[in-house]
């Protein structure tokens, strides 16, 4: 039996995927409210294809519980934030999960950590707990790191088709876990050691952060030099070895804006490009704020309450607001004692910020200027509603004449 620990954005789809492919699965989360929702057939976040997968898993008998189970395999998918001061990983959720598993797990069990961790986390935090509990690693307990790689918005497809990395101490166990994941994963599954798997995952997200930072820096340079950044990127990308990403209002989510800090925290003085990229991406919400101010002056908008931010999530067509550029920008405004700006996001159903709207038309009715922070399908399909508005488009999704850009 597989006990999946942590039923968030990664753990839930993973548990459902294993169960829908016929494996015996119990999903565990310490949040009783979340468990009761799942038990009564309610999903806890929106994701394309998740409903169908949930129904298939329930039909195959998946169980949900707030208690850790006695199982042959544990899959841990809990958050791994970083300490905002030291920049070092905060492994407390992982540590707590391992301690709880140790209370119920039989000898011979395999513990698979899917959460992204800084290289060395398993050595520093996980191994000591296992040993303190009298288990011998390699015989009584097998440790594996199988970092998740799926992208919110396309999770189910990517769970099935992405390549995966399995890091294990013992090649035989690595191959066993590979067979387990091959029950649903059609991508290549590479078996390696634990430290390599840890580092590879962090490197992947850091690579993307640096590349987004390059696009964002170009946007700033081009703004200062009076050049059209999107046209420049479009033409440069015709070169066979150039592939520049898109500038935007910043980098959000719980992955790309977090994981590079692990390397900065652990290797200060060495992780220089990585640190610079983090700073550039973190500076984007403030840059957008500067653009809003400039445009307000140009268009003689005196009152910020006539400005509306479209989008609260960290990217399009997801309901995840963690580290979102819009939230970062609102924080920055509060620091400058500027408030009153209006906000709307069709994916965020509850009030999480001041002056938040839940109806697109009502929102549009109350503003003269719309700042597109997120390119949800809703706005892409209703661009004509913005005809009379002053538009600052940070995502380059609007091609109406007079649209302002980054
Ligand atoms: N962004 C830009 N410009 C771009 C691309 C992205 O500004 O050209 C912004 C997005 O709007 C968003 C942020 O960057 O705010 C991150 O979005 P994303 O779509 O690039 O990635 P995530 O954070 O949703 O998912 C990433 C993925 N990692 C990589 O692509 C290397 C995913 O595969 C990982 O599984 C996930 O992190 C994770 O959980 O680690």
Global geometry:
globular
Bound molecules: ligand SAJ
Distance between the termini: 51 Å
**What is the ordering of alpha helices and beta strands?**
EHEHHEEHEHEHEHEHHHHEHEEHEHEE
Q: What amount of the residues lies in strands? A: 5-15%
Helix content: 40-55%
Average pLDDT score: 96
Low-confidence parts lasting 5 or more residues at pLDDT below 50?
Answer: none
How many H/I helices? 14
Structure class: alpha/beta
| Major sheet | 8 strands, mixed
Query: Order of strands across the widest beta sheet?
Result: 3-2-1-4-5-6-7-8
In angstroms, what is the radius of gyration? 23 Å
Number of strands: 14
List the helices and strands and how they pair.
Blueprint (H helix, E strand, L loop, with lengths): L1 E4 L5 H10 L4 E4 L3 H8 L10 H10 L3 E3 L7 E4 L15 H13 L4 E5 L7 H12 L8 E5 L9 H7 L2 E5 L2 H11 L7 E4 L1 H32 L3 H8 L22 H8 L5 H27 L8 E4 L14 H11 L6 E3 L11 E2 L2 H6 L3 E4 L4 H5 L8 E4 L10 E2 L1
Helix pairs in contact: 1-3, 4-5, 8-10, 8-11, 10-11, 11-12
The structure holds ligand SAJ.
Summarize the structure.
41% of the residues lie in helices and 13% in strands. It has 406 residues and is α/β, with parallel strands linked by helices.
Give a written overview of the molecule.
This protein has 406 residues and is an alpha/beta fold. The chain is 41% helix and 13% strand. The protein is built from 14 helices and 14 strands. The chain has an eight-stranded mixed sheet with strand order 3-2-1-4-5-6-7-8, sandwiched between helices. The chain has a six-stranded parallel sheet with strand order 11-10-9-12-13-14. Helix 12 (325-335) links the parallel strand 9 and strand 10. The relative contact order is 0.09. The model has no long low-confidence stretch (mean pLDDT 96). Bound molecules: ligand SAJ. Ligand SAJ binds at residues 116, 148-152, 204-205, 208, 212, 245-246, 248, 251-253, 255-256, 314-315.
């Amino acid at each position: 039996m597989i006990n999946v620990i942590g039923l968030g954005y990664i753990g839930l789809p993973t548990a459902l995927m294993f169960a829908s492919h016929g494996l015996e699965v119990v999903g565990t989360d310490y949040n009783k409210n979340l468990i009761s929702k799942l038990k009564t057939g309610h999903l806890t976040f929106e994701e394309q294809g998740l409903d169908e997968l949930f129904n298939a898993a329930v039909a195959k008998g998946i169980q949900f519980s707030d208690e850790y189970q006695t199982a042959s395999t544990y899959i841990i998918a809990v958050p791994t934030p970083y300490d905002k001061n030291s920049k070092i990983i905060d492994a407390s959720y992982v540590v707590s999960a391992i301690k709880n598993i140790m209370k119920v797990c039989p000898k011979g069990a395999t513990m698979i950590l899917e959460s992204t961790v800084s290289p060395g986390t398993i050595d520093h935090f996980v191994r000591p707990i296992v040993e303190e509990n009298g288990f011998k690693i390699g015989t009584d307990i097998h440790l594996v790191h199988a970092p998740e790689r799926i992208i919110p918005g396309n999770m189910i497809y990517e769970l099935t088709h992405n390549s995966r990395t399995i890091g294990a101490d013992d090649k035989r166990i690595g191959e066993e876990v590979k067979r387990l994941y091959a029950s649903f994963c059609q991508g290549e599954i590479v078996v390696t050691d634990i430290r390599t798997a840890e580092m590879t995952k962090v490197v992947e997200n850091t690579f993307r952060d640096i590349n987004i930072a390059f696009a964002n820096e170009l946007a700033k340079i081009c703004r200062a030099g009076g050049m059209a950044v999107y046209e420049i990127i479009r033409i440069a990308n015709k070169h066979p070895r150039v592939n520049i990403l898109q500038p935007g209002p910043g980098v959000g989510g719980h992955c790309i804006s977090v994981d590079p800090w692990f390397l900065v925290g652990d290797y200060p003085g060495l992780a220089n490009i990585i640190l610079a990229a983090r700073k550039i991406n973190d500076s984007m919400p403030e840059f957008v704020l500067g653009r809003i101010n400039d445009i307000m002056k140009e268009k003689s908008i005196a009152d910020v309450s006539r400005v509306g931010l479209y989008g609260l999530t960290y990217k399009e067509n997801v309901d995840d607001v963690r580290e979102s550029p819009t939230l970062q920008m609102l924080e920055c405004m509060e620091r400058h004692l500027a408030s009153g700006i209006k906000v709307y996001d069709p994916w965020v159903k509850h009030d999480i910020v001041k002056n938040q709207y839940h109806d697109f038309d009502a929102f549009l009715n109350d503003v003269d200027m719309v700042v597109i922070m997120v390119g949800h399908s809703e706005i892409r399909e209703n661009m004509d509603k913005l005809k009379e508005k002053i538009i600052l488009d940070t995502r380059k999704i609007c091609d109406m004449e007079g649209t302002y850009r980054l």
